[in-house]
Every structure is written in C-alpha cells, then in structure tokens.
Specification:
This protein is of the alpha/beta class and 232 residues long. It contains 8 helices and 9 strands. Helix content is 36%, strand content 25%. Helix 2 crosses helix 3.
Length: 232
Amino acid sequence: MLPLTLDQVSFAVNGRTLIERVSVEVGAGPRTIILGPNGAGKSVLMRLCHGLLSPTSGSILWRGTNTGRQRQAMVFQRPVMLRRSALANVTYALKLAAIAPRERELRAQDVLEAVGLSHLAERPARMLSGGEQQRVALARAWALNPEVLFLDEPTANLDPGAVRDIESIIAQIHASGTKIIMTTHNLGQARRLADEILFLYQGRLAERAAVERFFRQPASPEAASFLREEMP
C-alpha cells in the first residue's frame, strides 16, 4: 500500500488553517517521526493520513489509490480501553477485522505475550496502569498485522520505565516489517527511534531529513530554533 503520498494537502477549521499545502511521499522501511512545536499540526497531519479527517484541499493516496485504510492502524496518546479484559480488547479488534474465532484467540495471546502482558490477559483493561494500557493498545493494533502503524505521542505522560517498555515494543513492531509513522515531543526519543524526521512548523512541512543530519545540521532556521529550544 506504500508509498503514502500527500499532494498539496491543506486542512482548515472555522477559517483557521491548521495544515497548509503539505506535499510529501512516505515509503516503506525507515521509521518516520514527525516533530514540531506545540500547535504545529503534528496530530492533525497524522489524523489526515490515517483517514480520521479529510483534507480541505489536496489529496492523500496509498500507492496511487485511496483504498489503503484497512491495512493500517493507529494508537493514540490516551488509549481507549473497552470494558472488558486485556485479552478481550485485542480479540474484539480482531473480530471487527473478520478474523476467525480460533485464530483471533491465538493471535491475541501471541501479541500480549510479545508486549509482556500475558500474565494480565484476564485483568480488566481499565484497571491497568497507564503504561500497561498503552501496551494493550499497541498489542491490539499489532494483532491486525498492519502494513503501517501510526503512533500519536504514545509515551506522553508515562514514567521512564513505561517509556522504555513502549519504545522496545515499537522497535519490535518495526522489526516485524510494519512501517512506523509517529509523533513525539521527546527529542531524545526521536533520536532513538527515528530513521527520518519530518519537521512541521505552523502547519507547513519545513524540513525532511535523515535523523543524524537533522539533529547535527538542520537545514531550516525554524528547525534550528526548535532544537535550541527557542520555541514552545
């Protein structure tokens, strides 16, 4: 389904432009992290790519078509847990994807083990800690075998131990062959997880660069100012 191609994509609400004429092509392989100051449009851009929002103008295509949504998934900053066990949260997502009952049970058990939660499989998901809930959300998405996984600030407000756990799982998902597209406010995390950076500023794509070059020698003055922590 890749590449994902955005062509002159804009998005406005009540006369306010949040994303302005963004054009970029994102291919398979490298982990792509979207950086930018608060209000730059990172989460909005990700929701546009995922299909939760429709652009005001421009186009978003998956390998030249608009039929890629069923092969991608998204995990949000605050995961939504259903009123059921951790295991049932995963199997329900697989049921919606029309996976056969026996296979979805096995697949759910496998991903919960992969994220280190097999011992909590029958625990009510809403009784888990914030980090554990985020691991359930990652397991739920991973179980669908998505070709692309969008992650919107997946470690915000988590303690350092939980952040390490989530980063390890993201690395596993990437190693399994899933394309990672992620937003974060944590520059250290971006250095650890990214292969390439998309830098947004005031709704525009100000820079795209390999992670090493971006942090060593940003090409845009906005990115340089951001890395010097001279903007929010």
